[in-house]
Amino acid sequence: MFSKFDVIETIEMIEKEHLDIRTVTMGVSLLSCVRATAKETAKAVYDLVCRKAERLVPTADALSGEYGIPIVNKRVSVTPVSLITAAFPQQSALVGAALDKAAAELGIDFLGGYSALVHKGTADYEEAFLATIPEVLASTKRLCSSVNVGSSKSGINMDAVRAMGEIVLKTAQLTKEKDGLGCAKLVVFCNAVEDNPFMAGAFHGVGEADTVINVGVSGPGVVQHALKFIPDADLTDAAELIKRTAFKITRAGQLVAKEAAKRLGARFGIVDLSLAPTPARGDSVAHILEELGLEVVGCHGTTAALAMLNDAVKKGGVMASSRVGGLSGAFIPVSEDIGMIESATAGKISIDKLEAMTCVCSVGLDMIAIPGDTPASTISAIIADEAAIGMVNNKTTAVRVIPAPGKQVGDEVSFGGLLGRAPVMPVHTGDAGKFIRRGGLIPAPIHSFKN
Amino acid sequence: MRAVVTVTGSDRRGIIARVSGFLFERNVNIEDISQTILGDQFAMIMMVDTSESQVEFAQLAKELSEMGEKIGMTVRLQHADIFDAMHNV
Question: What are phi and psi of A336, to 5 degrees?
């Protein structure tokens, strides 16, 4: 049983501290949709996704009403499309358009899975698929794309890394009238997970069941608020409080996930224990770090504070959910976090510090605007560095950078809504071109041989 | 269905009467009532059972919220499971 104080605490979390279920994501396997032609396949994909996810939005809205907790996003992830279109990769865009149309029909803002898994090598059909990504992201609104270029087990496919630098740049150029918005829908992963509910990197792995519900929780504001009450506590106590708070947040996610799966006739997949910020004030991961005692996120000490936060969130969350997965940890997207935006605008956080932070948190260099004239080889080098961190540390890392067309350091890009805004940050100008052009595979680290 | 009604706002006369009367008309049984002060605000928490009510849960929540607006209070109806989940191991 719960007390009246528990009731009030929950209500305050929801109404004053932005506690919400960040996303209910339905994973749908498309493997049954392969037909003889691209056109027929696209139609089968559209029909299947519309049928499977038909009740996703109304069901999530009903749950939100009953439990009195907002469910911010309703989304769908699908099998990596490159696998579905392997027989006609040049026409993959037809399937991309069908998915975009299905997302519009379902009333969801994003659908993920225009993806390829090339971490050990790029097949011919995958090479052709990758080449379609910029045009597809420019011509669709809701479709998200991701490419896995490395893993701790396989190493890093540097040919794919080289290709992705060019693809990111081309995507920015094709969406230049919107500050390179296409790149906000494109994630380059190392150690991509198959059950991630968060966009833009969600896809439905081939090891998954047919139809699965994965839920991402959030609540940076709740953690920050809780910490305000113990301004002088030592870090052991602060970590303990974060754990307890994460437990409560995750339990709400677990409840919604199980009930949503039941009502939608899907499997309950996982709860992703994440602190996902939004550009709204009071919903910032950066501000948690500052609450812990940093003057501004990005100063020395930020990596340690983030490491503690990330670990405490996982420990509290694991206890609260029977099935944990996804990315699970603190997200540090620059454009989607008011504390990050302010620090970056004031020049208090650098891309190097962000890279260090990705060593200890759940994702990678996320939603960072860089100068539009950044060479493709430099973007590839940024991807390679991040993939190396993921590979060596057995964790997921990702790169979602936006080379903002026509913009320089000091300018700002603005995408609106949850994607937020970001100042253009400087990157190192030394040339890594030769290193990137070498291609090949960076071998997996010695500690990957565990068999 | 076990649910929780919470009423928050500035304290005034007749709040309990209005809310409990409203629930009575819709066949919702009140199992427990407690009150507390939340900052400078009045907060009332009712444990209720909606299983005998003919009104659908979502509709009930909507009507309660609208009734609350009329008397200048915030009134919410939530499934009790959310509180159980968050506050019990």
Answer: -105, 15
